[in-house]
Amino acid sequence: IYAFRGARVGNMADFEREYRVARVVKLEQNYRSGGHILDAANGLIAHNERRLGKNLRTDAGAGEPVRVHESVSDYAEAQWVLEELQQLHRGGLARSETALLYRSNAQSRVLESALFNAAIPYRVYGGLRFFERAEVKHALAYLRLLENLDDDTSFLRVVNFPARGIGARSIEQLQDAARASGRSLAQSVGAVAGKAGANLQQFVQLVQRMREATRGVTLREIIEHMLHESGLVEFYKTDKEGADRIENLEELVNAAESFVMQEGFGKDAVALPLDEQAGAPDIAPDAETGEIQSPLAAFLTHAALEAGDNQAGAGQDAVQLMTVHSAKGLEFDAVFITGLEEGLFPHENSLSDGDGLEEERRLMYVAITRARKRLYLSYSQTRLLHGQTRYNIKSRFLEELPEASLRWLTPRQAGFGSGYAREYQQAWGRGSGPGGIVGVGRVDRNLRAPWAAPPPPAPREDQGGLRVGQTVFHNKFGEGVITTLEGRGPDARAQVQFGRHGSKWLALGVAKLTPVD
Predict the structure, then answer these.
(1) Helices 134-147 and 295-306: crossing angle, nearest 10°?
(2) Cis peptide before 456 (omega within 30 of 0)
(3) Distance from first CA to last CA of the chain, Å, rounded?
(4) pTM for this one?
(5) pLDDT in tens, the chain (517 residues)
(6) 487: left (phi over 0), alpha (psi -120 to 50) or beta
(7) Max CA pair span of the chain
(8) CB < 8 Å & 24+ apart, contacts of 419-423
(9) Beta bridge pairs of residue 408
């Protein structure tokens, strides 16, 4: 079915010609999807020139139109998906009957983060969650060593990755020396003799050089420097699945950039380890424990939390996440196809190759026909790439769908709305963090079609709309209960007990808490 698995689109045409097939029977009746979904698939694939020709049909009626949504950013897109998922679930649809599809693995990170923060169970089908992927774990291990060279677990993970000629026997000698002296592995490298000892010394010196080179820089710059100096990027360039792995490493930069903004550090905050900047303005108390943390330490704590044992277990009703490639052969009542932008879907590697573009269109055809009852297509004006905001053009595939089968949830435009883009750029530029992003995202929700569920009530700036003991919803931390209220107006704050994230003090003018009925 896929070219990357060896399929060739001309195989069936060759068969028909070489065996002089007199009669071709086309299996065109579909027993899965509604008429609008099939019309969308037929309209899309008709733009491929190299095909035998087939038009799917159904006796099940037109069904619901295909819903199309434009968001201001990838984070606003994830928030909109989250709201629709919650609405579908409240309407009685099992979470396991909803699927979030994306073109490349790296796109899962923003969706996973939104689901995790809202405590919605999810399962990554045919793959690993973002922070569980080997290349991401390797990168985080290097970052932990920059924060604390005496972290033995991280040391063992990357001391010989990429390979540095340090074998298992050398590691055993190092561990024996560390136990005997009661010191860390890094502090004990001098106890290993010979070439292996020299290689160990070089590794420790590498970490120390990276640590020295990243003094006074931002978290994004630390990660970018580490990825290249550690050799991870060069190693994966020669790996069979290297392109996807490098995309995931680049997405780690995006994860860090969004984290420092959401946590209020600011994107330009210096992210050196705490012992090198004690008392500096870029460090802040952790909202849960009160411990003073640098942006780097706080991000590593956040990554460890998301990487914890929180994926849905066997038999649990959970939202399904997967790449379009993994979705072949599966079907769901509701399907979301996200990231429909030029360069993402169709993928940038296919844009200069006619055959590649037709392969991408076949992938989109597969994605569309996974949906039984309801199909959502979404794209965003801006998306983080390498820690920088990139302005996008919506996918050509959206223009190839029959208009009669679509329902636009946001006003349709030839390009992206310049007003939305300006507002997002201004919010990002003045360092407003999630308030700016979510605020712009509210524009999308206010413009939704009349049949959609109304947006949640707007939060009050003072305490008038909130009370102790009330259940509220926070975009990042999910549902929680207010335990304390203090202050008035711009100084108002609340202490909220969240089930997953513990107790948090939140500024009400920023946190945007929504009461839960």
Answers:
(1) 150
(2) no
(3) 48
(4) 0.70
(5) 566 677 777 888 888 889 999 998 989 999 999 999 999 999 999 999 877 778 899 998 999 999 999 999 999 999 999 999 999 999 999 999 999 999 999 999 999 999 998 989 999 998 888 999 999 999 999 999 999 999 999 999 999 999 998 999 999 999 999 999 999 999 999 988 888 899 999 999 999 999 999 988 899 999 999 999 999 999 999 988 788 899 999 999 999 988 887 776 766 777 655 444 434 445 554 444 334 467 898 899 888 888 765 556 667 899 999 999 999 999 999 999 999 999 999 998 887 776 889 989 999 999 999 999 999 999 999 998 766 788 989 999 999 999 999 999 988 654 443 333 333 333 333 333 333 333 333 333 333 333 333 333 333 444 547 888 888 888 777 788 888 887 777 667 788 887 666 667 777 777 778 888 6
(6) left
(7) 84
(8) 420/72, 420/381, 421/72, 421/381, 421/382, 421/391, 423/72
(9) 68
Distances (CA, A) of 508 to 137, 480, 482, 492, 494: 35, 14, 12, 6, 7
Tokens of 281: 């303005």
Pair of tokens at residue 505 = 């003090």
Task: Give dist(CA 442, CA 432) in Å, integer.
Answer: 15
- Reduce the DSSP state of residue 6 to 3 states and report it: coil
